[in-house]
Design brief:
Four copies of one chain form a homotetramer.
Chain A (H helix, E strand, L loop, with lengths): L3 H18 L4 H12 L8 H12 L2 H18 L5 H9 L6 H11 L3 H13 L3 H5 L11 H17 L2 H10 L4
């Protein structure tokens, strides 16, 4: 039986690998974080943004939401879902809502500001989110676009709640 | 393309059929509703409880949560999930939380009282919930037990918010 | 003891009166609804938008959230809160979050799409929200801006879930 | 302008003082934590329970929810609320829900297990919660009973997510 720390790392690797396979790199998420937080965290750079994203991607409840959502996207692509669910996923039915709920749950782990940030980028389809939402590719990203938006929003929440550590980074150039 | 009303009915039938296949009948959920609400709704009987449950099972956001959760249970039983997800589902990992989040989302559609009611029966493992939670059967009900508790709790919420209609029922014996 | 229906109407009047006193008219909220939904509900006019808003303002859980938030704004303006709370309200502390949580709870009554819509207008400070957020007026609107955004978002959720009734309206010009 | 760390400590002291004034001591909350977690965390004692509670009481979003709820109870006792709100608070109206929503928000900061734990003790009126809910005392604890339940549930969530630190405590007798 793997330890808690081992599971955490295993889930993290699983997520990063799957995000990448589906066209989402850390720098794409960092770009959304910088778009959202630039005027609040002066000096925010990609390194710090990715550091915050990694904090999120190591949080167990966040990992669970992300793994579950990506799983459903992949299963839908493989045509492995029951007829009604397959239909919902293929049409990306606007009243489905489970994708958004998972994203809200994830972002709310980092406070309510994260939820409004998620809502904002989700509507804007900013950056990589626009590409993920492009139905012409044949890929099914019902959950992925919401989750990526929520990961970015959660990372913003982490930044907003860790001012001291960020000030240290700007003073020393070191993280952790 | 089916109409909204047709989809609603189709999802409803899909859910009732799947609940039944997995050992959950309407009367099992009604029993939880009566256990929870007996002292608040005097005269509450199985007919009224099932009426309230049917209201919940026709609400689209509730349908979506239920269909998604049951789907994941079935896929895990068929061994169709990725390794980390399969492991989580087979061990019913206590920190998973997506099952409970889906249930909280469902119950919160009917107000916050429904969420506390869900939490209560989930901890108690009342009635059918105890059976669903029994790991010795080999069935995977990671989502199902939470969803059934949440459906019951949501039905209680419907009862709490529809006093006038209930009074009419007690006066006339008729529903709707 | 007033009946449920009487309380509902009383709370509705209390809310509309307080919104107006604090500079928010029904047409201001309708403007946000139209901004958000124009491309999804073709033919959406102010009359239908206000109809949807009134649906929200008659829902008890929505009423409770709105009344509570406005109350706290008024009490802060009257200097009736304890020192730490007074400080939080006067500085509109960015990590406070209870205002946003109340708004998320309200909007989530109408599905997760409403939550993303709320997040979107909250960030944009669209229309009346910009005025409410203007600190130079001396007014305290810590909760009001979030609540108004959430009411509009919830009304959008109502519209998204009541296509049949809306089609009837466009066909007959009549509501209800 | 006080620093983030100073504010945190100030809010913590404000909360502990107000809980105590209203009849809630740390050991009362610890008793609920031990009731909930005894069979999951073997060896759980009051010291560790209070340590977990203090973690919760230092988390900003938790502090904000607690301060806001207690404030409303105190204002209602002083008769400072508007007529409809005063009526809701004095009758502890069952459909109010903002008290439970605040508690759900607080507990969900520590994962969904915390929400079901909160729902459970809220229904049971376990320990101090029964006393807080006793209307015969003339005190208004509309928010306090829910918040205390949520603080305990959140502390359980902290325990569930910090196994390594707890194992260290059992090995060394030292915390932090």
């Amino acid at each position: 039986m793997p330890s808690d720390v081992e599971l955490n790392e295993q889930y993290y690797q699983h997520i990063v690998r799957n995000l990448s396979k589906r066209g989402v790199e850390m720098k794409d998420i960092a770009e959304i974080v910088m778009f959202l937080e630039k005027e609040y965290v002066h000096g925010l750079d990609e390194k710090l943004a990715i550091y915050a994203i990694n904090k999120v991607l190591h949080k167990r409840e966040a990992q669970n939401a992300i793994m579950t959502g990506i799983e459903l996207d992949i299963l839908a692509e493989k045509d492995l879902l029951s007829a009604p669910m397959e239909r919902i996923m293929r049409t990306d039915e606007s009243t489905y809502g489970v994708d958004e709920n998972l994203a809200i749950t994830l972002s709310s782990l980092y406070g309510s500001v994260s939820v409004t940030n998620y809502g904002y980028v989700d509507k804007l389809k900013h950056g990589i989110l626009g590409k993920l939402n492009d139905k012409s590719t044949g890929k099914i990203n019902v959950f992925l676009d919401d989750l990526v938006g929520a990961i970015a929003a959660a990372a913003c929440g982490w930044l907003a709640h860790n001012e001291t550590q960020i000030a240290d980074y700007f003073a020393t150039g070191k993280l952790e």
